Amino acid sequence: MSDSKRSAAALLVDCLAEQGATRIFTVPGESFLAVLDALPERPEIDVVTCRQEGGVAFMACADGAMNAASTGRPGIAFVTRGPGATNASIGVHVAHQDSQPMILFVGDVARSMQGREGFQEVDFTAFFAPICKWAARIDDPLRIPEYIARAYAVAMSGRPGPVVLALPEDMLVEQVPASLGPRPFVTRPAQAVCPDAMQALLGLIADAASPIAIIGGAGWNAKAREYFRQFAERIGLPVATAFRRQDAIAPDSPVYAGNLGYGPNPKLVERVKNADLVITVGARLGEATTDGYEVPTLEHPGQTLVHIHPDPEELGRVYRTDLALCCSVDEFAEAAALWEETDIIPFDAGAEAHAEWLEWSTPKPSDAGMDLGACVAAMREMLPADTIICNGAGNFAGWWHRYWRYTAYPGQLAPTCGAMGYGVPAAVAAALHYPERTVVAVAGDGDFLMNGQELATAAQYGANLIVVVVDNGAYGTIRMHQEREYPGRVSATTLANPDFAMLGAAFGGWSAKATTTEEFVAALEEAKGRTGIRLIHALTDLERIAASGATISGLRARAR
Predict the structure, then answer these.
(1) What average pLDDT does the structure give for the chain?
(2) How far apart are CA 221 and CA 234, in angstroms?
(3) Residue among 275, 273, 247 at smallest CA distance from 259
(4) What pLDDT score was predicted for residue 1?
(5) H or E stretch at 94
(6) Nearest partner of 261 among 369, 436, 398, judged by Cα
(7) Where in the chain is the domain with CATH 3.40.50.1220?
(8) Distances from the Cα of 488 to the Cαs of 390, 396, 475, 482, in angstroms?
């Protein structure tokens, strides 16, 4: 008897289910209709239909980031060829620079059309190769189980990141033997730390006078968070988090020193500069974390740099490294916490650095009508400690980075590559992923309008989220740079905005407008007692351009 048949698309969906996929994000396209037809046969996979492929990719990236905190499974996205794939490329780039596991499937032209520049044809392996870990095209349907298993392995292993697989539409409808099944469940390889390297590190710490750790990044998870906290607290090691990795350690840890990146505490910057030993765990030491590769410097004379990372290609790639440990960061953290033989005399610096951060992260009284520092402080008092804060890019985010306490894990969804438009899609993904938790999207006026349409997705799937739109009528970050470099010469940074409160209502949500701190607090009180979409339109003064205290008039005066 001949073997029965099924479509390659059905096989692909079965492979995803076997690998633990529970949700995919998509804008449907004619190039993968066969996949859409097969998905209802696997009801354990929730299908979320979005409104633009950029939102699709951001949601999948955020989903992968949340999975990375526990299971490590990638977020999954499906888009069509041409404009669909190019729209989605922004999320692939974010996943790559953020070291987050993600798989993007792209419906492609038929195999017989390849190379003719057919309708919406793009060479996707060439297009995506520079911004992902692996890009490939599945031409042989019999190899689908192999490709899916490899995609999961690549996305999760070493430095996690995105994988892109192109799916020719004729390949998806081809029939394959029903007996051809998925490959076994792929797990992330766990690499233990070398005992000799660990002993060498502990020796360096014992000999150090002013060490500091910079943590958060590739492979960081709940296990790494807890064990590294135990290790750092035991020896009084000051711990700073890399840019937008503020949930990598609990903020109530007595050794938490604050976050690096844009607008950090100047005292923390000095601590890093004056440290004789810098221990980096998981982070890449990218441009934002290091303030343009200056904190620390690439050669860091007078400093010893230890880099712990799960991917050997990252070790020594940019920075001169004195001791490199290639291992899973959670395995390293556990080994460090449980290591018994140590001559380390506990440092006082951890408590001192924590006190500096507490002072820096406490808002000071202000005469501003809308004081964002006070607004964030009110949010801390009024919202649950496990609230997830999601934001895109812009100066507005600086107030939350400085004053919010990222207590939960995961508790921060924010693109380290600085992509605008990330906050709202990420919040939708978070609200679906953690329906029992409070989710807040914080967006600037320019930032919000890049992907605010995904509130329609939130409404369609009953997602509960609070959206704070900070409206100063400008692309604030660029305006700040503009005033610093070309004071008083304003060009292309002014925005004429809609009534965001009315826009929130148009999506079926509750909304309010706030022009003062008191109005913001009252709106938040009302919002937290409701469900669904709740949007607060917070109108702020452009003069107060940054959480660091910078003002437009101050920037102009400094340039004179």
Answers:
(1) 96
(2) 20
(3) 247
(4) 39
(5) helix 83-98
(6) 398
(7) 195-358
(8) 33, 21, 15, 8
- pLDDT (tens digit, 9 = 90+) per residue, 330-387? 999 999 999 987 789 999 999 999 999 999 999 998 888 999 999 999 999 999 999 9
DSSP helix/strand/coil, 119 = coil
* Mean local confidence (pLDDT), 185-214: 96
Report helix, strand or coil for 548. Answer: coil
Q: What is the pLDDT of residues 42-80, one digit of tens each?
A: 999 999 999 999 999 999 999 999 999 999 999 999 999
Distance CA 459, CA 476 (A): 29
Architecture per CATH, 364-559: 3-Layer(aba) Sandwich (3.40)
Residues 444-459 as b or e (16 or more Cβ within 10 Å = b):
bbbbbbbbbbbbbbbb
Strands 388-391 and 412-413: parallel
In whole angstroms, what is the distance from residue 423 CA to residue 436 CA?
A: 19
Bridge pairing between strands 134-137 and 102-108: unpaired
> What average pLDDT does range 210-216 have in this prediction?
98
Whether the CB-CB separation of 306 and 276 falls below 8 Å is answered with: no
Q: Say if CB 279 and CB 309 are below 8 A apart.
A: no
With beta carbons less than 8 A apart as the criterion, state whether 285 and 214 touch. yes
pLDDT score, position 146: 98
CATH 3.20.20.80 holds for 5-177: no
Give the closest residue to 59 by CA, choosing from 386, 552, 492, 413: 413
439: which strand partners? 388
Torsion sign (Cα): 138, 23, 397, 305 = negative
Beta carbons of 108 and 148 less than 8 angstroms apart: no
Quick one: which of 462, 467, 438 has its CA closest to 452?
467
Residue intervals of the chain classified under CATH 3.40.50.970 are 5-177, 364-559
Contact criterion met (CB below 8 Å) for 441 and 59: no
- Residue 223: which H helix or E strand, with range? helix 222-235
Reported as a pLDDT band with limits 50, 70 and 90, residue 2 is low
SS3 174: coil
List the beta bridge partners of residue 47: 24
Burial (Cβ within 10 Å: 0-12, 13-18, ≥19) of residue 223: middle
Q: 201, exposed or middle or buried, with CB in 10 Å at 0-12, 13-18, 19+? A: buried
Residue pLDDT, tens place only, 456-466:
999 999 999 99
CATH class of 195-358: alpha beta
Per-residue tokens: 325: 């440990």
The pLDDT tens digits of the residues spanning 489-518 come to 999 999 999 999 999 999 999 999 999 999
Whether the predicted pLDDT of 110 surpasses 90? no
User: Residue 305 and residue 10: Cα distance in Å, rounded?
Assistant: 50
The whole-number pLDDT of residue 357 equals 98
